[in-house]
Design goal:
- 15% of the residues lie in helices and 40% in strands.
- By secondary structure, the chain is mainly beta.
- The chain has one domain: SH3 type barrels (Roll).
- The strands form 2 sheets. It has a 5-stranded antiparallel sheet. Strands 2-3 form a two-stranded antiparallel sheet.
- The N terminus is likely disordered.
Length: 110
Amino acid sequence: MLGSVIRTAVVLVAVLTGCPAAALAASCIVADPTGTPLNVRSAPQGPVLSTLRNGTAVVVVEEQALGGKRWAKVTADGEARGWVFASYLDCTMADDTTKSAPMHPRSPPL
């Protein structure tokens, strides 16, 4: 329990300061509520390199905050991929058995 609290604190400080979190390892699933593939970028808000479909398993290796938004550097299938918008990931910490809250996107206005 204490280890989970410490890891959460380290990640929170890293995200708030924009510094990469050392030893961040989260197993995640792409959960983009827009219905389009998730853009993988060369840097936070950088040029698009590729896309990942919903349900694709990824591992977060680094996080940054930029412009008030969280970005995650991910790998998939053991290969480096790039940066994605972190809010579109459903993650579990490496030694944590609890999952983050599932995304419930708002309905578009009529």
